[in-house]
Amino acid sequence: MLVSVLGTLAAIASLTIIVWGLPKQIYLNYKRKSCEGLAPDLVYSAFVIYLFWGIYGWAKPDWFIFVADIPGAILSAILVYQLYHYGDRQKRAEFWQKQFAWLKPDYILGSLLQLDISTLFRYSGRVYLVLDLDNTICLPGSEEVDPRVVEMIMTAMNRDMVAGVVILSNTIFPSKKREARVARVARLLGAEHVCAIRPHHKPHPKALLTAMDKLPGALPRNTIMVGDQLFTDIRLARRVGVRSVLVKPLGRDAAYITWKRWLETIIFRLTQWR
């Protein structure tokens, strides 16, 4: 009997704080479009405490605990969102940039055609290019390369600004048909080619190191990786220590890549990379 009474009183006290205090703070933040004076650590702690007590009440089950704490978890979650929404966007972006530094490209371009090889040559001397295939050079499954891309690369090689080019494409499983396609596209560009096979496919460092072995003189300091995916091409470049260029994909992705694009979109929004 006493335990039941104490539980009821605790539930009433908790709900009083929740019903009166939290909504008032949420409204104040909304009205002034700021969370000034609000201690973030206190808000985060309240959210975690309310949430776990609510889960505990549901699992036990103890409906006094559940009813007393779940509304607090919901309202404190709103406060967490307000802290994020009304906070310093620049500081927030800098925070996420640090978290995702392992995926950050050195350059972000609309397409391979925007790659300014003459500027790279002016500052770095001759460079070696490692190019992704699908959605970077040509559409998935296609062998058609934009003639302007062919001209750009061939001109750079003839002027000795580019010392060598290799196409690096994930094959995952051995496929003569796939490798033949990569080889044909490579010939159009006067390039070498490497088909990375599981388990040493991109972003495994061995994939890029194998590609660089095809280019005598290629070192991390003079090699540039160009691709359209953060989690394969750019991650690979970061792991090996070469400069990286992220380009916008030329067309639609295969179904198994779509989920990565969703993650990329979230990362770009958080980091505000441009």
Beta strands, count: 6
The CATH class of the largest domain is identified as: Alpha Beta
Q: CATH homologous superfamily of the largest domain - what is it?
A: HAD superfamily/HAD-like
Number of helices, where a helix is a run of at least 4 consecutive DSSP H or I residues: 10
Q: TL;DR?
A:
The protein has 274 residues and is an alpha/beta fold.
Question: What would your notes on this structure say?
Answer:
The protein has 274 residues and is an alpha/beta fold. Strands 1-6-5-2-3-4 form a six-stranded parallel sheet, with helices on both faces. Helices cover 57% and strands 13% of the residues. The chain has helices at residues 2-32, 40-59, 63-86, 89-99, 117-124, 147-158, 176-189, 205-213, 230-240, 255-271; strands at 107-109, 127-131, 162-172, 192-197, 223-227, 243-247. Strand 3, helix 7 (176-189) and strand 4 (192-197) form a beta-alpha-beta unit.
Task: Name a few traits of the molecule.
2 domains; Monooxygenase; 6 strands; 274 residues; alpha/beta; single chain; Rossmann fold
Write the layout of secondary structure elements.
Blueprint: H1 2-32, H2 40-59, H3 63-86, H4 89-99, E1 107-109, H5 117-124, E2 127-131, H6 147-158, E3 162-172, H7 176-189, E4 192-197, H8 205-213, E5 223-227, H9 230-240, E6 243-247, H10 255-271
Parallel strand pairs: 1-6, 2-3, 2-5, 3-4, 5-6
